[in-house]
Amino acid sequence: MSRFTLEQQRVLFPKLSERDIESLLPIGAERDFAAGTVIQDWDTPSPGVFVVLRGKVELLGSTNQIETLLELFERGNFSGELNQLSGRKSLVRYRAAEECTILEIQRQALHARLEGDPVLGNLLLSCFMTRRNYLIADSIGDAVLIGPNNSRDTLRLRTFLGRNGHPYAFLDADTDESVKALLLQFSIKPSELPVLICRGSIVLRNPSNQEAASFFDLNARIEENKIFDLIVVGAGPAGLASAVYAASEGLAVLVLESNAVGGQAGSSSRIENYLGFPLGISGQELAERAYVQAQKFGAQVLISQGACALACTEAPYRVKLDDETRVTARTLIVASGSRYRKLEVANADRFEGQGIYYGATAIESTFCIDEDIIVVGGGNSAGQAAVFLSERAQHVYLLVRGPDLGSSMSQYLIPRIDASPKITLQTRSEILGSTGSSILNACGGATGERGSNTTMRSGMFSS
Ligand SMILES: Cc1cc2nc3c(=O)[nH]c(=O)nc-3n(C[C@H](O)[C@H](O)[C@H](O)COP(=O)(O)OP(=O)(O)OC[C@H]3O[C@@H](n4cnc5c(N)ncnc54)[C@H](O)[C@@H]3O)c2cc1C
Question: What is the CATH number of the domain that holds 385?
């Protein structure tokens, strides 16, 4: 019996019509498998997708090293999720449940098909995205991140994996009882946290984002000596938009991103003034859609690979990456965005990720549950953060140095802040210091209106 409802099956595992199967036959290769043979294994790059033509195929997931039958595929079912667009390693395993025949379609042919047949293309793409969301929601892929919740590096890795859409399970080393046994099993000392464990064997101790990216094979493979038509530096909204437009015109595009796709927008809880999204969209979702869209048109994206040097005296231009690789293109677009200011008070660095945060996503909101929190700033991101975090915090204090919000915040946000009983606006106020032991415990501030110094005990979000 399937673990999914009929509605979930319809969305996650739609069957191609006989007409669609017929139309795909010329671009694929038929392959036969005996019962029990692995057709596509996890952790191996998949050449593309396949459609079941005859027999039954098991779709297997893995969580905590336990193999689980997710679904039984029959004629018309097709494999794949977002990783197959870029040739990354598979997060699931496919095994022949009985003697079967599949139609294997290589990635290049798949891309051409996605572009040439919008109806079939949309079916496959929306299905790939839904499958990825399901894998993330159910932590399927067998990656486990273990670390103290209130640790800067734990937050860094959670943000990095989350923004790059990689499924993982998170175990809080401070509160989760099962963690001790796991740490013992892998001989991990508390000082080595956070760690990444995959399929019960490989352990990365406090890896950099770049190490995590290569561990999970998040990057497209780049053909050496290839001259790209366009290299885009930065995968924020501007970089991804450039990639979509250029790749959709048939140009060979490479996007370089030093951190995670989405840029600043990826740290926004809800963007409401982006054209085409009247109900608003989270920065993460906007970035995810743009990322898929760029890949759909064939753009290649390198994550956690910044451009560290450009040689532009003669064409083709050369770009040196953080890992010393060199890539070449006829055109460069630098969309590296801007760096926001950080709080300029003593100790602020020490508490970053441990009471002071520069983002307001679902992850940061978990630190605010039933807490009094301070949002610093009078711009739109601060306004959005105050409204979003007030849903979970006990109370939000919005601190601005100016006399009001009118000069810095969009009009659509101000009435929401005024109307919320859980948000208090404190004008002419400034944070002057922060104290705590391992995590932020209190901030001292001055409020000009009262002309006195005040101290607030709280976690703090700053933007
Ligand atoms: C919390 C928050 C909420 C926001 N809400 C809104 C909103 O509601 N509406 C709105 O219009 N705007 C909003 N903004 C602003 C909006 O996100 C930015 O204007 C937008 O992201 C700018 O896009 P960008 O692509 O130019 O730059 P960025 O988003 O800054 O992206 C630049 C990217 O380039 C990468 N990069 C930098 N250097 C290199 C390098 N050397 N090599 C490779 N990659 C590099 C960075 O890592 C980054 O990912 C918000 C911003 C924040 C922080």
Answer: 3.50.50.60
Distance 83 CA to ligand 1 centre (A): 24
The CA 2 to ligand 1 mean position distance, Å, reads 42
Long-range pairs for 445-454: beta carbons < 8 A, 24 or more residues apart: 445/399
State pTM to two decimals. Answer: 0.82
| Residue 216 is assigned to a structural domain of this protein | no
Same domain as 120, residue 17: yes
Give me ligand 1 centre to Cα 213, in Å.
20
User: Beta partners for 26?
Assistant: none
Side chain identity at residue 177, one-letter code: E
Cβ atoms of residues 100 and 94 within 8 Å: no
Task: Please write the tens of the pLDDT for every residue from 180-217.
Answer: 877 887 888 889 999 998 766 778 999 999 999 988 88
Range of the domain at 378: 348-457
The residue from 134, 166, 193 where one domain ends is 134
403 and 435 part of one domain: yes
CB-based burial label for 395 (10 Å; 0-12, 13-18, 19+): middle
Last residue of a domain, one of 107, 134, 161: 134
377 lines ligand 1 (CB under 6 A): no
Cβ pair 446, 430 in contact under 8 A = yes
Indicate whether residue 84 lines ligand 1 (CB < 6 A). no
Q: Kindly state if the Cβ of 298 falls inside 6 Å of ligand 1.
A: no
> β-strand 429-436 against 395-399: which pairing, if any?
unpaired
Specify whether 155 is located in the same domain as 130: no
Cα gap 281→127, rounded to integer Å: 20
Give the tens place of pLDDT for each residue, 64-123: 677 889 999 999 999 988 887 777 888 899 999 999 999 999 988 888 887 788 888 888
Count helices and strands in the chain by DSSP H and E runs: 13, 25
